[in-house]
Amino acid sequence: MQGNIRQLLQRAWHAIRKEARWLMPGLGVKRWLLLIIAGNTLLGVGLAMLLLDFYRNAPDTWWLPALSFLALRFLTRPLRVLIFGGLGVGLLLLGLWGFNRSLLRPFLQPGKRVIDSVSAFRKRERGPRIVVIGGGTGLSTLLRGLKDFSNNISAIVTVADDGGSSGELRRSLGVLPPGDIRNCLTALANDETLMGQLFQYRFAAGNGLSGHALGNLLITALADITGSFEEAVAESGRVLAVRGQVLPSTLHDVRLAADILLTETQASVQVVGESNIPKSAGRVRRVWLEPSNPLAYPPTVQAILSADLILIGPGSLFTSLLPNLLVPDIAEALRVSRGLKFYICNVATQQGETDGFDCYEHVRTIERHIGGGIFDLVLCNSNYNASLPQGIEWVKPSEKLEQEYPLYCADLVDQDSAWRHDPGRLAQAVMDLYYERTGPLSIRENLNNPGV
Predict the structure, then answer these.
(1) Do 260 and 334 sit in the same domain of this protein?
(2) pLDDT per residue as tens digits for the range 346-371
(3) Are 407 and 443 in contact (CB under 8 A)?
(4) pTM of the full predicted structure?
(5) Which residue segment(s) compose the domain that 278 sits in?
(6) How many Cβ atoms are within 10 Å of 76's Cβ, its own excluded?
(7) Model confidence at 228, in pLDDT bands (50, 70, 90)?
């Protein structure tokens, strides 16, 4: 008997604790609850005064004793206050709970409690302002993990792509390439279900449609309807309910060119076109944009200057990261921004671009193009146990890297695709470093003590 009572009390206490989460700081609920209670209290006081006046002035009839009984006048006044006050608060909370559930039911995910949804939203709403610079699969992977920590994310994407569906639309319609932007919008979508799959759907056949992604066509159509590419991206973000924003590095029609050293003849050739660079049989020495000094998209520069955390990478070094950083205004904004700047090194090399590169060579390549002294921390993978496809090698840190840069290594590998980052692990490592829960206790202090 005592055991059953103890279990009942434990269940009741557990239920109270679960519902008491509504009173946690930061949810933005308590202020409105107090306002509702204050309004109901004043309404109750007014009603009590009306009943008291009626009770005192009403003629002595048969129903007065019944009214006295319902008012519990046979009990002491403090006890009556406690009983009626408790019933009032209970009914108020029950009504608010039922009203909110009915109101929010269309917007809740199945199996998820209201308090959990509200708590997660408030946490992300107060998250740091994060800027991520990159492109391709690496950028989408990072965004997919980061959106669980903050709604204040700005993804900066290159517009130098000229291959595949994006390249075809660029050549035939003269629009900026939407491919990388489409991938980022899908990764930042609030719910990557049917709408996200629809955006990523690629036509396998059809006259003029073969190979095109539906999202690319939608962005292109919106650009024509709205009259501007940036407005088309913003409208697409609203359709997908993205957590953050996706910004092009520039609105100019730029091309990526490269100086490639041919390994057999030791002669260098110039290759124009982002899609042509990885296909060239040689080692990329440097890349540049044509025209060479495009103006940055102003909101992109503003996002960098106001960021708390700036992440460069992961992504294709020469064809995804550098095309963004070669925009002069973006490079200058990186230098003057007060936000922490992390470089996230790729897990594995990329054929045709970074064959034989270690982590140090990735960092040095960026600094040769835009200058040094940018990164506050370099983040590398430390798990090399999985098998990689032929022609791909692990990107490992070297002693030079540890001597010149604050370095942090962690297991960041995706179990299913070992040459890629795991979204959850990567985002967790980044946020832990930002909040100084792991790694260097103070990243900025370690700048004067490299290798710590």
Answers:
(1) no
(2) 999 998 888 889 999 999 999 999 98
(3) no
(4) 0.75
(5) 255-288
(6) 10
(7) confident
